[in-house]
């Protein structure tokens, strides 16, 4: 089964040789993050996530505009935080980016508190759904006449249009009750952070049922780190080395930097870590040690090429069609995965038939 395989460009100061030990050369910068994107493009990855965090790193939308003309074939999955930009202006920016990418734009919708503001979970997710509804209407080239709790808008679409004339796909994640409802009602791809195979299956079943109530279907994505080496022993040693200089105080400080550090999804990653065995493995080839220094995606697929491939195929068997992977340092692990696993996957852009490449 064909799947979309994406990599990660560390726009949020999340690149290390040793977790918790900052290195100037790996800090988020235009040059470093550009090189990560170009590396993934050269290796033939289908997409790359450009994350977004106000207090960390550099801006995703501005970065996307800078790197777009340099790319050969890869899509950009640009993270945008709902509420930080006025939806009509954001629609105009996204349409412009899509033109620059010859139709290869995808959008990661983030439901987050705005910098300096705290909002309860339910209205915050309600705002996110309204943003998605307004964006989809405008990016489909239609006038918007929207009167919601958070936005009151009546206006024509921007003059800038996407290559296809349609809204780019929305990727969206979250496992709280309001997050699931928003995904079911407004997303194209529901993204998950790492979890055990039975829990992944349970969430996918729930999300299929929720989407059906809205008369919709969802596609599913999985965000995880990966550590692949020629042997399982080498992979486990690499995992141990990655956290060998990390202390608990530093790890907790890093986890608290995110605006989303108290979310239900983050709590689930902590529970996963706490339920793991002493070596950090919560199930076969799924290692939670990386979550000691991350508030979000907190586990890695660890093993030899056959084991990593088998793990990805197990997720595919449940219905996962898109993988967003990363590793530390990101450029080195991007090379290793491309060498050992990527050629063995039947992969391609998830919405390639809907987004023509120029």
Describe what you observe in this structure:
The protein is of the alpha/beta class. The chain has helices at 30-43, 60-67, 87-100, 121-139, 177-186, 197-213, 232-242, 248-255, 264-274, 305-318, 330-340; strands at 4-8, 47-50, 75-81, 105-110, 144-147, 152-155, 170-173, 189-192, 219-228, 281-283, 286-287, 300-303, 320-326. It has one domain: Alpha-Beta Barrel (TIM Barrel), CATH 3.20.20.30. The longest helix has 19 residues, at 121-139. It starts with a strand and ends in an 18-residue tail after the last helix. The model has no long low-confidence stretch (mean pLDDT 92).
Provide tags for this entry.
single chain; 358 residues; alpha/beta; TIM Barrel; 8-stranded parallel β-barrel; 11 helices; globular
> Which overall shape is indicated by the principal axes computed on the Cα atoms?
globular
Number of strands: 13
User: What is the number of helical segments per DSSP (H or I, 4+ residues)?
Assistant: 11
User: Which parts are unreliable, with pLDDT below 50 for 5 consecutive residues or more?
Assistant: none
| Beta-strand residue percentage | 15-25%
pLDDT averaged over residues: 92
What is the CA-atom radius of gyration, in angstroms? Answer: 19 Å
Corresponding CATH architecture: Alpha-Beta Barrel
Helix content bin: 25-40%
Spatial arrangement of strands, main beta sheet: 1-2-3-4-7-8-9-13
In CATH, what is the homologous superfamily? Luciferase-like domain
**SSE pattern, N- to C-terminal:** EHEHEHEHEEEHEHEHHHEEEHEH
Taking the sheet with the most strands, its summary is: 8 strands, parallel, barrel
- Given the helix and strand composition, which structural class is it? alpha/beta
